[in-house]
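User: Please fill in residues for this 400-position structure.
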């Protein structure tokens, strides 16, 4: 950034722990004040020499005053213009931007455009604090491994996710010509993750449904739609009325809200419609699940605690995302073909791959509606059986 440097400005300038700061002097061309992440303030000269931008370190502020730095730059510029300047060892090529400088640019130019969950990407990239001050072309594989080791101590899974995002950022830098190649191509996750296999049983689903009845709006209704539709938690929680076509019985999830960036259509079954008809509408609000009308519902961590207390004490640990696997598993048992289930879950599946995947735009509309109908019938039969068993138990107790 460019401004007129003054002694007072330099004294008051605070370091940014995420990135170094460069201030170009308006009075003396080429003079730059660099403030490192640690707070060191250094005068430099930026000048094109022999067709390349170079940086000459003048000296630290305190050793050199502002007026002395300006005078030294004036002398060097005079030598350059008169042909008396000799190349010196203290001159170095201007370095590439640092990782700390590139992360905001990457988030703004790429992540916000292509990733709905860009805030989480920014948060995870922020964990590489030891690399933020390094120029992007000076980041080596061992540096990344060491940084991941530090993250892994307290958050093993987060270390894997952060590494994946850093790989993508470095690939983005390659595409933009900032570096020739990524130093971490082929670097495997440092922590082995066990794939989840938790599937809720019919009894557990029934208990969860009953807990949703007791919970009411907005969380009870939201959880019921999660069970019935098999869609992702955020996608359901942030559902808009404008996305729903009740007449055509269709929910269209726009690409901006879908995790994989693809528009997705979900048929609305009778069971889902019954849940939606029980949802109150906030005047002037497009959110289906909201407590303020201005933002979608949040606080699923506290909801999960309440649901766990409502379920039987011997219920195995589960997470809300397990509901998608539960529906998928049951659909296989109900005879639903895997490509239909994958299409319904909006997965980037490997069932259809290569050129066929590019040209396969068939959305399985009728098959998805039939599959969700089978799942809804299964849930309905499950609740009916539970009611009949409860009634029989009450009758037997009364007869005794």
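Assistant: Residues filled in for all 400 positions:
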């Amino acid at each position: 950034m460019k401004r007129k440097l003054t002694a007072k400005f330099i004294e008051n300038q605070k370091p940014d722990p995420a990135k170094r700061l460069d201030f170009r002097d308006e009075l003396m061309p080429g003079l730059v004040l660099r403030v490192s992440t640690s707070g060191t303030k250094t005068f430099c000269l930026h000048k094109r020499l022999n067709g390349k931008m170079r940086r000459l370190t003048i000296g630290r502020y305190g050793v050199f005053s502002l007026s002395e730095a300006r005078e030294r730059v004036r002398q060097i510029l005079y030598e350059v213009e008169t042909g008396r300047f000799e190349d010196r060892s203290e001159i170095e090529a201007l370095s590439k931007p640092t990782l700390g400088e590139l992360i905001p640019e990457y988030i703004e130019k790429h992540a916000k455009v292509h990733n709905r969950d860009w805030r989480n990407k920014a948060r995870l990239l922020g964990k590489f604090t030891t690399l933020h001050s390094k120029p992007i072309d000076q980041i080596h594989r061992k540096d990344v491994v060491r940084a991941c080791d530090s993250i892994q101590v307290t958050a093993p899974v987060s270390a894997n996710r952060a590494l994946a995002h850093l790989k993508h950022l470095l690939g983005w830098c390659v595409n933009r010509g900032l570096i020739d190649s990524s130093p971490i191509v082929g670097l495997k996750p440092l922590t082995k993750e066990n794939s989840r296999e938790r599937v809720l049983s019919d009894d557990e689903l029934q208990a969860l449904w009953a807990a949703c009845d007791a919970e009411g709006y907005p969380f009870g209704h939201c959880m019921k739609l999660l069970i019935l539709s098999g869609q992702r938690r955020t996608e359901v929680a942030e559902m808009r009325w404008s996305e729903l076509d009740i007449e055509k019985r269709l929910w269209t999830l726009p690409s901006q809200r879908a995790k994989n960036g693809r528009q997705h259509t979900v048929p609305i079954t009778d069971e889902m419609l019954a849940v939606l008809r029980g949802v109150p509408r906030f005047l002037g609000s497009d959110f289906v699940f909201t407590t303020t009308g201005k933002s979608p519902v949040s606080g699923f961590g506290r909801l999960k605690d309440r649901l766990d207390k409502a379920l039987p004490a011997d219920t195995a640990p589960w997470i809300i995302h397990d509901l998608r696997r539960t529906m998928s598993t049951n659909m296989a048992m109900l005879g639903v073909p895997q490509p239909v289930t994958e299409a319904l879950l909006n997965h980037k599946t490997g069932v259809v791959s290569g050129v066929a995947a590019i040209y396969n735009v068939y959305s399985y509309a009728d098959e998805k509606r039939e599959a969700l109908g089978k799942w809804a019938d299964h849930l309905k039969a499950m609740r009916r059986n539970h009611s009949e068993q409860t009634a029989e138990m009450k009758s037997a107790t009364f007869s005794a």
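For context: The chain has 15 helices and nine strands.
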